[in-house]
């Protein structure tokens, strides 16, 4: 029994020792475990902090990615719109280019057609230029011949007028000498309101023509030329009027200071070529009451270089003046 107890005690002691070793190891293990747990908790806290930071970074990164994606999407949309617009414009330009190409082809055909017409016109123009040059040469030759003929005509005209004046003067002198003893000399007055050298020339030329015509009728005349209205109202008066503006105005100015109780004849002088003379006599145009006292209104055509030149109007007017003067003989 004692041996069994000793063994049991010994075993108990051994077990106690083992237990103590186990408790010591357990305590050491607990300490190690605590250290491990502490390190684990510390590591876990650090990991949690890092995880939180990474999570925040991830959130920020995600936000940046979302923002970038949104921006890229917006840019892509804009680029797509620009691309679509560019594509649309390109299509429109291509259409316009096609239309422009057709127009160019049409214009090329028209240009070719017009060039052909221009070539034909150039050919015709060359012919016309040649013909025009020939005509110009002929015209220049004719002009020189006409100028030569005109100079000869003017010379002949001057000689004719001078001869006519001499003949008229001779006839007038002869007739005056023949009938001076039996005929009564008719006194005539001439008056021009415009004091110009041309007035004296026209009155002198008109006097010569009237003297010649009346001498053939054996009616000698004595002409007095006045630059102021003559006072004697019993003598027939011929008033010279230059038609420079309106007919009525010119005639009214010419007879303005003349007594209306006397009978007068108005000679309207027209400085015009034969082809430009008026179609209607002045007396048909002056029909107002202020012209009733005028015994005769006649038109005389003249040129500065030729004086009173021969024409139908002048012949008729001289006949009217001769009749006007003859009524006083």
Automatic annotation (TrEMBL):
It comes from the Eukaryota. Residues 63-155 form the Nucleoporin NSP1-like C-terminal domain. InterPro entries: Nucleoporin_NSP1_C. Keywords: Coiled coil. Residues 5-71, 97-173 form a coiled coil. Pfam families: Nsp1_C. This is Nucleoporin NSP1-like C-terminal domain-containing protein. It comes from Mytilus coruscus (Sea mussel). The lineage of its organism: Eukaryota, Metazoa, Spiralia, Lophotrochozoa, Mollusca.
